[in-house]
Amino acid sequence: MGAERYAGYFMLVTALIIAVPVLVQIRAREADFRHTWAPVLFFLGLAATGGAFAFVPSDKQTSIAVAGVAAMLVSLLFAQAKVSR
To answer: Is 29 helix (H, G, I), strand (E, B) or coil?
Structure first.
């Protein structure tokens, strides 16, 4: 159980590292939400997965973590589709 909690903390820190440049770009008006929604969705998925491992009891942990991973996969698919245009 302890290793899962530390993995969750690591995912939450990683989510913050992802969020900082995106928020800076939005604030500086270099990009708007239309162009940055895929990284924001990835951040939310990673934060949900990390939060599930760090703070949620194990009976509900799996479903929240799977939803977070699904959000990350969707964001990566749409980011890839946007790049290949």
So the answer is: coil
Radius of gyration of the chain (CA): 14
Query: Is 33 exposed, middle or buried, given 0-12, 13-18 or 19+ CB atoms closer than 10 A?
Result: exposed
- Average predicted confidence (pLDDT) for the chain: 87
Closest among 26, 15, 18 to 68, alpha carbons compared: 15
How many Cβ atoms are within 10 Å of 53's Cβ, its own excluded? Answer: 25
28: which DSSP letter? T
Distance CA 62, CA 5 (A): 13
Tokens read off for 37: 């929604």
pTM: 0.84
